[in-house]
Write a structure and sequence with these properties.
Keywords: DNA-binding, TPR repeat, Transcription, Transcription regulation. This is DNA-binding SARP family transcriptional activator. One of its GO terms (biological process) is regulation of DNA-templated transcription. InterPro entries: AfsR-DnrI-RedD_regulator, BTAD, OmpR/PhoB-type_DNA-bd, P-loop_NTPase, Sig_transdc_resp-reg_C-effctor, TPR-like_helical_dom_sf, TPR_rpt, WH-like_DNA-bd_sf. Belongs to the AfsR/DnrI/RedD regulatory family. This protein has about 950 residues and is an alpha/beta fold. Helix content is about 60%, strand content about 5%. Residues about 1-5 and about 255-270 have low confidence and may be disordered. The chain is globular and about 105 Å long. The chain is built from 42 helices and 14 strands. A hairpin with a 2-residue loop joins strand 2 (about 20) and strand 3 (about 25). Among the domains are: about 285-435, 3-Layer(aba) Sandwich (Rossmann fold), CATH 3.40.50.300; about 440-525, no CATH class; about 605-740, no CATH class; about 740-840, Serine Threonine Protein Phosphatase 5, Tetratricopeptide repeat, CATH 1.25.40.10; about 865-935. The strands form 4 sheets. A 5-stranded parallel beta sheet has the order 8-9-10-7-11, sandwiched between helices.
Length: about 950
């Protein structure tokens, strides 16, 4: 079973508790944290109630602060996981009534063990034994040996014993009786009542010529179960005993012994057809090791099949030929090679009958002895190789049917198939193993360029050579072409070639060797031309998406099809290695493949491309509008969620933020593409919609750049409302990031437009904006007047959202003026209105603001209560800014009460969250924490 990537976090319970970050073991800390993490890992992706956690950690005597201690453990574990892997491959979520570890099951050792055991069922004995050995190799000792309490792990121990029994059964089938006897004696002693081990040692002893010992093993077991349990052995064991007594011939039918490799006889040709291996083969150490393990662990009575698949130019053929030469001594009866031309330009795929004829001739069959009929050729081919161990390399296969008849029979032969497709049916029907090639690493790419050129360019021009590797996308074919140009044409320098490759419009032309027929675009063109029309359309659509990755939803919108069809088409393109599915539903184009797709798109009518881009923007407008309303209610009058009913629909605010996190690079690219295409209306609308996300995330990267595009688009299109809404969006993000100084002209412009439009809700929005800008300039009394006007207008118009927003900001200015009691009253009103409106994020912020005001009023009990409420609500709703603010206030309250240790802990966590968000508040918290730490 193929292993997943080793990047990110991995969790082990099959032994002492283990957490690996990119292969490096983390120190987990105290026993309680290990116990909690062990529970979350064992119940991964399921909620573990906090009461259950307390019961497990403390049995019948939990301390009074048990729940608080658990909260602290979770906080420290979260910090540990986030620091070890900021990408978040595993996260601890607060999900009432407890916590859950959200993680890909493949990152859990016991899940991999179970899958290996399940995958072994029904496989040939040799494959079964290998899979079960891999599974058992995951155990590092007693399950959770270093975890306190009594975690329930009996099912994992039973899994290990079942895997042991099945592995031994498979090896008995393979005839390894004598070598199993010692292991089985130990297992029978360790597990004396496990009947299957007893039956297996009886068969192993009998087939090793130790019939008396086999009978004695049964008698010992019989006496023990009768004396200690008062029962007889089971029916299967009794039948086996009778078979041993009467020397039943069925017992002598074990697995096939390892075949004897026959040396070549006089007159028998030993073919050596592999092409010459490329000199200076670079990298691929892991892939070569994978092939070595596959070869070393192969079943000597069966054929081992490996399919090496990958994108055009990735180096599949080179790997297969290089490995074949390196392991040639393992195949004393010959090396056969056939170029199947599955994806060769201007050539038809080679028929199996033709390849069989060549192979038979290479194996010494006279030309007049080669049968005409395909079935006869297959029969003769299998007969000739029946007891010979050979390596058969089938390069560039089109489909499984082109391969099946060319597979050698048993005797430990290996068939190595390369293809641009995955050929999954060979896995299902022939037990093939799959190896997918990725691009080279940066260091390997640099070494390859040096090797091809024949001199250490990376030492002479290190920066330029690394830039060259990046522009080639670390694709071996592209790297060899670029290096060949440097070698053939001395006038080319690395910098001049980098300059040419940096032009996206010229890069593919530069990666072509002209008359040789070798080029990246030519290699990709073969794959593209072989696509059916619907997949060719999908490939072009994927090239149209301006972002880094493509989703089935986006393809459904572009191709006007349903989501299931779009997902299936993308999967087919990934199968053809024109896309890579980097996560479920997330498909990425290699940079050079993207350039080729856009080159193909260049042949289309510009109007059709613009219409497709408009459909894509409508899709994202609908998705963004739906997602932003889950984060905060919208009061701007934009209703775009229905322009594409097939757009994704997150169900919660946390899911909406997660969707935005993932899509943000695509949204940035889409704003740029829409602006270039002149889709001004959709550009400003998209900018307005995403500002809610930027406020929640304390301004996301690239916000200010796209805000400028949005403002320009609204002004170019003459859309006054759009200009006002984008100006207001810029104000909201500036407030959250502390950049409100100098925004007064924009605020006055927005309010002027709102007065022209005459809509009360826009007047409320822009009065609030204007007051905030005045406050930032220190003109507090003017700001108060505008806030009060906005509150009255909102109440007259029934604009509850606007009223609550302005009340909150009004209270902040009153707080600055020292009018604390009035500020607290207005803040309390804002909190209640937000609560009635269901605006959870604004409600939590208002709770925290009120806690801060109570602190200044000296009402520390009320301040602590509200701050703790704000923190708990923010954690449950994935509101990092609000949680950080609540912890900041709570830390100040605890410090005033003299609880320095607790205060330091809250301020430290607040600082961590603010720094993660890039919030300017981090500086305030750091100052408070340093003062508290140095205080005597």
């Amino acid at each position: 079973m193929a292993d997943r990537s080793r990047s990110g976090l991995e969790f082990g319970v099959l032994g002492p508790l283990q957490v690996l970050a990119d292969g490096r073991q983390l120190v987990i800390g105290r026993k309680g944290m290990r116990g909690l993490l062990a529970m979350l890992v064992l119940e991964a992706n399921r909620v573990v109630p906090i009461d259950e956690i307390v019961d497990c950690l403390w049995q019948d005597e939990p301390p009074a602060t048990a729940r608080t201690i658990v909260h602290g453990y979770v906080s420290r574990l979260r910090r540990m996981l986030e620091q070890a892997d900021p990408a978040g491959s595993a996260r601890i979520l607060t999900t009432p009534p407890g916590y859950q570890l959200a993680v890909d099951p493949w990152r859990l050792d016991f899940h991999r063990a179970r899958r290996l055991v399940a995958g072994a069922r029904g496989k040939p004995a040799a494959i079964r034994a290998q899979l079960l050995r891999e599974s058992l190799g995951l155990w590092r000792g007693q399950v959770l040996a270093d975890v306190p309490g009594d975690p329930i792990t009996t099912d994992l121990e039973e899994l290990r014993l079942a895997a042991l029994e099945e592995r031994i059964e498979a090896e008995l089938e393979l005839g390894r009786h004598l070598e199993l006897v010692g292991e089985l004696r130990q297992l029978v002693g360790e597990f004396p009542f496990r009947e299957r081990f007893v039956g297996q040692i009886m068969r192993a002893l009998y087939r090793s010529g130790q019939r008396a010992d086999a009978l004695e093993a049964y008698q010992r077991f019989h006496r023990r179960v009768v004396d200690e349990l008062g029962i007889d052995p089971g029916p299967e064991l009794r039948v086996l005993h009778e078979q041993v007594l009467r020397d039943d011939p069925a017992l002598r039918v074990g697995g096939l012994a390892e075949p004897v490799t026959l040396p070549p006889r006089p007159g028998v040709v030993v073919p050596a057809q592999l092409p010459a291996a490329a000199s200076g083969f670079i990298g691929r150490d892991e892939e070569l090791a994978w092939l070595d393990r596959l070869c070393d662990g192969r079943d000597p009575s069966a054929t081992t099949i490996a399919v090496v698949n990958g994108a055009p130019g990735i180096g599949k053929s080179e790997l297969a030929v290089t490995w074949g030469h390196r392991r040639a001594e393992q195949f004393p009866d010959g090396l056969l090679f056939a170029a199947l031309n599955g994806f060769a330009p201007d050539r038809e795929p080679v028929e199996p009958a033709e390849v069989l004829g060549r192979f038979l001739l290479a194996l010494g069959v006279p030309a007049d002895g080669v049968p005409r009929d395909l079935d006869d050729r297959v029969g003769l081919y299998r007969s000739v190789l029946a007891k010979r161990r050979v390596l058969v390399v089938l390069d560039d296969a089109w489909d499984p049917e082109q391969v099946r008849l060319l597979l050698p029979p048993g005797a430990g032969s290996v068939a190595l198939v390369t293809s641009r497709r995955r050929l999954e049916s060979l896995v299902v029907s022939n037990g093939a193993r799959m190896l997918t090639l990725d691009t080279l690493s940066e260091d390997e790419s640099v070494r390859l360029v040096d090797e091809v050129v024949g001199k250490p360019l990376s030492e002479q021009e290190p920066v330029a050579v690394r830039m060259l590797a990046e522009l080639c996308g670390n694709l071996p074919l592209a790297l060899r072409i670029a290096a060949a140009k440097l070698m053939f044409s001395p006038e080319w320098t690395v910098e001049s070639l980098v300059a040419q490759l940096s032009d996206d419009d010229a890069r593919l032309r530069a990666l072509d060797l002209g008359d040789t027929g070798v080029g990246v675009a030519r290699a990709l063109a073969v794959s593209y031309r072989n696509l059916p029309p619907e997949l060719a359309e999908t490939f072009r659509a994927a090239g149209l998406v301006p972002g880094r990755w493509v989703s089935p939803h986006a393809i459904a919108a572009l191709c006007r099809t349903d989501l299931g069809t779009a997902a299936a088409r993308l999967a087919d393109l990934a199968d053809a290695h024109l896309l890579v599915e980097q996560w479920r539903g997330g498909f990425v184009l290699h940079d050079l493949v993207r350039l080729y797709a856009r080159e193909v798109l260049g042949d289309q009518d510009a109007g059709r491309r613009t219409a497709a881009l408009r459909r894509l923007m409508d899709h994202y407008l609908a998705a963004c509008d739906h997602a932003r309303r889950l984060i905060r209610p919208a009061g701007d009058g934009l209703d775009l969620a229905s322009v594409d009913p097939t757009a994704p629909r997150p169900a919660t605010a946390a899911q909406a933020l997660s969707w935005y996190d993932k899509e943000w690079p695509n949204l940035i690219a889409l704003v740029h593409a829409g602006a270039e295409a002149g889709l001004h209306q959709q550009v400003w609308q998209l900018v307005r919609l995403v500002h809610t996300y930027c406020v929640a995330r304390v301004a996301s990267r690239d916000w200010h750049g796209i805000a400028g595009f949005g403002l320009a688009a609204a002004r170019v299109s003459g859309d006054r409302r759009g200009e006002m809404l984008v100006l207001h969006a810029m104000y909201k993000v500036n407030v959250r990031t502390g950049r409100t100084r100098g925004t007064l002209p924009d605020a006055e412009r927005a309010h002027h437009i709102a007065r022209e439009l005459g809509e009360p809700r826009y007047l409320v929005m822009t009065l609030d904006q204007l007051a905030s800008a005045l406050s930032a300039e220190g003109r507090l009394e003017e700001a108060l007047a505008h806030y009060r006007e906005a509150v009255e207008l909102a109440r007259r118009d029934g604009d509850a959202l606007g009223e609550a927003t302005v009340l909150n900001n009004l209270a902040q200015v009153e707080q600055r003026l020292g009018q604390l009691e009035t500020a607290a009253q207005h803040q309390f009103q804002a909190m209640e209105v937000h609560h009635r409106n269901g605006d959870e994020r604004a409600y939590v912020l208002a709770v925290n603001n009120l806690a801060e005001m109570y602190t200044e009023l000296g009402l520390l009990g009320e301040a602590e209560e509200h701050a703790r409420q704000g923190v708990e609500l923010a954690r449950g709703g994935s509101m990092q800014f609000e949680e950080a603010f609540g912890r900041q206030v709570l830390g100040v309250v605890l410090a005033r009460r003299g609880e320095r240790v607790a205060a330091q802990a809250e301020l430290a966590e607040s600082l961590r969250l603010f720094e993660r968000l890039g919030s300017p508040r981090a500086m305030l918290v750091r100052t408070a924490l340093e003062a508290l730490t140095t205080e005597v």
